[in-house]
Amino acid sequence: MLFFLNRYDNDSQKQFEDEERVYLSNFGVNVVKRRVIVADGAKGAFISISHELRNPLYGILASCELMEESKLNEAQAGLVETIQGCGTSLISIINSVLDFAKL
């Protein structure tokens, strides 16, 4: 009789451990799912912000091109050239970041 009771206890303990393992595994999967959802939302927001930065920057660069066509003194021409160089660098950085974010 003790043998059967002991076996029952062992079976019950094993079943409890199996259920606990499944519960903890499911809990871990749910945590990972939530993190993926949050990360995906952050990625979308980041891409949106990057696009919002790029649009005004193109406007600044277009304005610089128009300014170049007008009569500028040497100092003004130098400033427009600096603005264009910096703007072009920023566009390049934003595009690289967007390409990386698409991965």
Automatic annotation (TrEMBL):
Signal transduction histidine kinase dimerisation/phosphoacceptor domain sequence ranges: 42-103
Entries under Gene3D superfamilies matching the protein: 1.10.287.130
GO MF: phosphorelay sensor kinase activity
Family matches, as SUPFAM superfamilies: Homodimeric domain of signal transducing histidine kinase
Record key words, sorted: Phosphoprotein
Entries under Pfam families matching the protein: HisKA (PF00512)
Protein name in the entry: Signal transduction histidine kinase dimerisation/phosphoacceptor domain-containing protein
